[in-house]
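okkk here we go again. third time trying to get the zinc ion bound version out, last two times i messed up the smiles copy paste (missing a bracket lol). double checked this time i swear
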Amino acid sequence: MHTLQMIKEQEPILARSQLYRLAPMGMRTVWVESLTSYIHRLAAKYKVKPRAFVTEVMLPHLVLWHETRPSFTTTTGGFYRREAIAINGAGEVAANFAEVIGQLNRRSDLRALTFHLWANPLPARGLLRWVPAWCPACYTAWRANGQALYHPLLWMLQVVTVCPRHRCFLIERCSH
Ligand SMILES: [Zn+2]
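finally!!
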């Protein structure tokens, strides 16, 4: 059976915690994980693509919210173009995603994976990157330590172009 279908059909059974209670990386440090990274890792636990995970598992729970927000669209393409950047931001999109995931996996700390505490009330656009950037040296070190690979919130800031740990430029495009 398809994993997403299993998640939905198990809802009554998993009423206490429908989704895996994955621990965010780097909590209470400057290396705290971004909410989009957390969604990617959560989707990977179910072996589904993040886009499918958001569309099929999360969006149904956002119905009440996006009914009051005419600009919001549940079409996958539209959603990713207009809204995905804001998931890590300081506004209502980020707050709503953190709340919905938190309700599904019984975590109350997911708002810390957004810029809520850093930048409120600055808008996400102009503050955050449209294209993710990463430090290859960080990934190499984490892989060597057997640590999960993730995207820190810090790397999402447009003004952060150099990794504070390795002093190398963040990369926006994979050479492969
Ligand atoms: Zn680094």
